[in-house]
Amino acid sequence: MRLTLGLVFAGFLSGSLQAQDLKLWYNQPAEQWTDALPLGNGRIGAMVFGGVNREHIQFNEETLWTDSPRDYNMPDGAKYLNDIRQLLFAGKQKEAEALAAKHFMGLKSKEEERAPWVEKVRDLASLKSNPSAAKYNDSKWKTIQLPAINGWETVGLEGLDGAVWLRNSFVLPDDWAGKDLVFDLGKIRDHDFTYVNGHLAGTTANASDGRMYVVSADKLKKGVNHISIQVLNYFDKGGLVGYKDTSRPMRVYPKGASEQQAVILSRSWKYMIQDDDPPLVGTYQASYQPFGDLLLTFPDASKGVSDYKRELDLTTAISKTTYVSKGVRYTREYFVSQPDQCLVVRITSDKKQSINFQAGLRSSHKQSAVRVIDPTTLGLSLQVKDGALKGESILKVNAIGGKTRVKNGQIHVSGANEVVLYLTAATNYKNFKDVSGDAAALAKADMEKLAQQSYGSLLNKHLNEYQQYFNRLSLSFGSSSESTLPTDQRIEQFAKNNDPAFAALYLQYGRYLLISSSRPGTRPANLQGIWNDLLTPSWGSKYTTNINLEMNYWPAESLNLSEMHEPLFDMIEELSQTGAETARKYYNAPGFVVHHNTDIWRGTAPINNSNHGIWVSGGAWLSTHLWERYNYTQDKEFLRNRAYPLMRKVALFFNSYLVKDPATGLLVSGPTNSPEQGGLVMGAAMDHQIIRDLYSACIKASEILNTDGELRKIMKSNRDRLTPNKIGRFGQLQEWTVDIDDTTNKHRHVSHLWGVHPGADITWDKDPEMMKAARQSLIYRGDEGTGWSLAWKINFWSRFKDGDHAWKMVHMLISPAAKGGGSYVNLFDAHPPFQIDGNFGGAAGIAEMLLQSHSGYLDILPSLPSALKDGEIKGLCARGGFELEMKWKDGKLSDLSVLSKAGNTCTVKYAGKELKFATERGKRYPIDSALQLIK
Ligand code: FUC
């Protein structure tokens, strides 16, 4: 339906939309993972490095996670609920947090006792010789470069936990003789025993403390001094991780002397793994896992390579690497097919018989093995450590011409004319309760389906399937001279030059990433979409619901990718099952609740610490997405069958959960927190805004569906008694019910502005004073932030209708990641580290400058930055069931046409003018720049 309409009414837009540049491209291969180019079909993700002699394609399968299905809920949390509330009402926050920490957090996965293991690895006498000794011979040990902020996992020891010895040395400057020295070693994960010349200099068990050990002069010697560190790492990142501020090296200096005089320790440390099997550490939730790596080695492509280029074409979802070696042009094309559920790599050359390479598989999972299935096929099997999930991947190499044979577990191809490689992958995950799948059978079945198909047919199916989504929206912000620059340079230049075309590319990249990580039938995009190369990714690469997961879906409806929203709705359905248990066990309440994080097993209990893990609005915020889907599509069946039943359950939860604040007599949420700010409280503005919007949505939905009359009355009454937004003594929008905001707080979370965006609780139309207070709060918080925080601020400033400030935030988001929040070379958003939310929030934010529809009308170019003088967009969606084409010149609307998809009355506002007209479903309405319907 949608496609046909688009074709029939393809209107006035100029050829420049077709000509726009929709490629990421580079003149050199990727070095870092965040230089590599992402591909994905929602389930299988791949990162293509594009190396000349060594191609590295790191891949993922979205259901490979740690742990197993289990109960996350403390059985009798509800017993303590009232006590926690009373303590908070009495102003005893610390006591309330302590009580909650003990009785109210979720259950961790299995944990093993640490002491016996520590005793074993600390029994130095049992070692053949003692690595702490100055004279120990470490010549056979390997070398590693440390500190590494993200742990030794990122510098060669992927997946390692346990007891590891590290050794280094330095030469004592002559004039330091007789002086005590300070050893400034940064942070060490998790526990260290640090020796200098065989003497214990210090030991610290807390991973987050910096190590500053003083060693007395009598333990030091002239010339070379030896440092040995035994590191006990139980879980996650390991080793010497330095300080977040990387400019501060590991160093030694005389006590009392200035740090400038320090001797900097060499980054080359010798290491020896003493024991790699530490006791299990319990975790609240599971982590997303990498799957494996496809490695291609091209022995004869080395020196003399010219004309190198690698790219990702957003219009085809195909990545390409080309170069000329010894007079032959080689081309590699890569894509991940949704219809055929496989990664495809095709290698061609412009001269026959010139393709020579070896293909191999690898995985960072300790329990993994590669096997030869037949001379053209390899298999990779893996088992996640201490978890329920197994993975199986199959690689098939199809060469035309030349020879193919197997040697040392690799497939060797020589003298081929063309080669196509296929990779399938699967796990035994069936759903969040069931892991009884057969990974090997699934991977095999996918491969067998490929056998009958030509590359051409595979490619066509891929293109048709991908483009049905991608082609629905096109835009242009004009052309800029920077478009001739490779993407890495363009990122560097973006903030300095006026390159609006790059912002258009950024928006389309957001759409590309959403299609690639969240196809219908798959799991939602997690913190990293579906792309992750680490066994211990930051925040488990799971789902954080106090901003990140929702932000991933901000572009879904407005940027014409409604189907990509589906995985989120499936997840909400699953969370309504697990969250019902949590609602009952913690709050004695009906409906369901989701706290601030969830994972593949759909955990909903509070996690981490009681000062930020007890936040109750995850389910409510998520369910506003169901309502938004209805707003945009006007799909009543969806509202009746999927959206309202879930939204209603969240409302039932809050009907039971909200309590009267004794100080005001109004309803408040609590115990809760304003995400990651100010600890456990009764009453946070964000909760109230979300709950108010949820009630309003449920009230309207129940009216549309003509159901739940009694419940509607309760929801109305609760909504009216909820604590309202308040303006505080600094002119700010209060973050809490009491006026305790700290105007110097620059924290990345700005949760109390939820009502401005994504909510519609606070608007210029409804309450300009509150809007000003919200803006004041944002001014106090400042512009700086992590990637997602910058992206949220684009949306806030757009809703404040300050396009230039919003544009400033776009500049900050699309700036080199090195300085904090920004963009990596592959345009992945940097928290840092990589977190995909900023890509999605940024794309949605750019759209928010062009069109807003949260106040019941189409607000045209509401927040157009002066830098975006000319532009056009086609396929932009609005609430009410409308799809727009528009064009603007010199900052002014020149053409507009509205396609009505639902036959609703349409109100358009632009530059102080208003047009209201009845519409017919399926009809397009051209409108001129004076807001007159063109008949
Ligand atoms: C929340 C945020 C962090 C990060 C994490 C995944 O805890 O405060 O910045 O985005 O989620």
What topology emerges from the helices and strands here?
Layout lengths: L1 H7 L7 H4 L3 E4 L10 E4 L3 E5 L5 E8 L16 H12 L3 H11 L11 H8 L19 E4 L16 E11 L8 E9 L1 E6 L2 E6 L5 E6 L7 E11 L5 E4 L8 E4 L8 E2 L3 E8 L16 E6 L8 E8 L4 E8 L2 E10 L4 E8 L5 E8 L4 E8 L2 E7 L6 E11 L2 E5 L2 E7 L1 E10 L11 H12 L4 H16 L3 E3 L10 H8 L5 H18 L25 E2 L3 H5 L1 H5 L7 H22 L9 E2 L19 H16 L2 H22 L1 E2 L6 E2 L3 E3 L2 E5 L3 H20 L4 H13 L46 H14 L5 H13 L3 H11 L8 E2 L5 E2 L6 H14 E2 L5 E3 L10 E8 L3 E8 L2 E9 L5 E5 L2 E5 L6 E4 L8
Parallel strand pairs: 38-42
Antiparallel strand pairs: 1-17, 2-3, 3-4, 4-16, 5-15, 6-11, 6-15, 7-10, 7-12, 7-13, 8-9, 8-11, 13-14, 16-21, 17-18, 18-19, 19-20, 20-27, 21-26, 22-23, 23-24, 24-27, 25-26, 28-39, 29-30, 31-32, 33-34, 35-36, 37-38, 39-40, 40-41, 41-44, 42-43
Helix pairs in contact: 3-4, 3-12, 9-20, 12-13, 12-14, 13-14, 13-15, 14-15, 15-16, 18-19, 18-20, 19-20
The structure holds alpha-L-fucopyranose (FUC).
Mean pLDDT equals 95
Major sheet description: 9 strands, antiparallel
Structural class, please? Answer: alpha+beta
Distance between the termini: 24 Å
Radius of gyration from the CA trace? 29 Å
Percent of residues in beta strands?
25-35%
Write out the distinct hetero groups bound to the structure.
alpha-L-fucopyranose
Fraction of residues in H or I helices: 25-40%
Pick out its properties.
nine-stranded antiparallel beta sheet; single chain; 935 residues; seven-stranded antiparallel beta sheet; globular; alpha+beta; binds alpha-L-fucopyranose; disordered N terminus
